[in-house]
Amino acid sequence: MNNIFIKNMFSQMxxxxxxxxIIRHRLRSILSIGMIxxxxxxxxxxxxxADFVLTALKHIAAENQFGNxxxxxxxxxxxxxxxxxxxxxxxxxxxxxxxxxxxxxxVSGRLSFFGLVSNGDLSIGAKIIGIDTLGEPHFTTSMxxxxxxxxxxxxxxxxxxxxxLAKQMNVKPGDTITVLTNTVxxxxxxxxxxxxxxxxxxxxxxxxxxxxxxxSLTQNIxxxxxxxxxxxxxxxxPQAELKIHSINLDLKQGMTQLMAKSWRELAVLFRxxxxxxxxxxxxxxxxxxxLMFLGILxxxxxxxxxxxxxxxxxxSFGESRSDIIAQFVLESLIxxxxxxxxxxxxxxxxxxxxxxxxxxxxMPGASVPFTLHINFLFSSVFYxxxxxxxxxxxxxxxxxxxxxxxxIVEALRKNI
Length: 416
Description:
Elements: H1 3-9, H2 12-24, H3 26-65, E1 69-73, H4 74-77, H5 95-100, E2 104-118, E3 123-131, E4 144-148, E5 158-162, H6 163-169, E6 176-182, E7 188-200, H7 204-207, E8 210-214, H8 215-222, E9 229-234, H9 238-253, E10 258-262, H10 263-266, H11 268-306, H12 308-316, H13 321-357, E11 360-361, E12 370-371, H14 378-404, H15 408-412
Parallel strand pairs: 3-8, 5-7
Antiparallel strand pairs: 1-9, 1-10, 2-3, 2-6, 2-9, 4-7, 5-8, 6-7, 11-12
């Protein structure tokens, strides 16, 4: 499409003719605008919902479950027949890494193990995770506390228990539970823990089997000063993925046997949901745009048949084939502009109504319901608008080109 064609298409005379034609076929124009608005509105809503869900999962993964980045021995990431002790390391090995990368603002350790948890009447297998609340201050605020409070004293014999696990064991804040496991040297050890609170991470997998304890307490239970993994927090989350390659090179060159992984590598649920929404949204877009394409194609084809005589008259007066195509495309673009505008406004209004209604829903794998929220994204509006204009142009160009190549004499007979 050259500059002359564009200039000719948007001439003042053509705009007047286009508006007159749109008003003349009022019902058909309204239907076309409705289809375009519906497609744009739906795309914006689906993208907004996916963005909200992925943002929530990203927060859970990067702030709570995994941190911005984790560093552990290669034997920890790919366990074999080696002992548990061989998969552990001391945080002092990372002093040089923290000094080299000023983007790293916190380095803290975690130590986890599987053990038996008993309330006196019932014993259940659980995953106990030791957290350094001083090194991970945001950890305590990234979960929903369902009862009691998060432990603050790093040396206290207190722990936070998952909501579903607490329900299964019938314990509440203030109750005492006993944790039983083997130390790193294989000696049986047990310790009484006071339930300081009950939490919900929003994911069944965590809420049904995890207990959080102070890191120093888990080290006492396992009789070690080492940790399984180091959790790194960066000044900005994207820096974790930007620096992971260079950090791994430094770890390899330092012969530390350590390997770093970003939160995205570790967050399997986030990647699965992201891929699901990506495929789902592409399919929905294809269906919506196909319906829009067929609707506009049918509407323009009917218009071409009805205006055959008019087309013949214009061609006999010297209008070129490109002029005829430009006229139909201009009419379609005007309808698309109005439809896109209405679709954008409509999606914003629907989002506000959904937020006002405070609709609660549940996600697969989620342990608690959440209030439905849809993010209004200008990037999605732009994306949907581009798709709408491109689809409308193609759907209009096909019948318009056929109309432009009509035999002039045969077209003029329609006026007789």
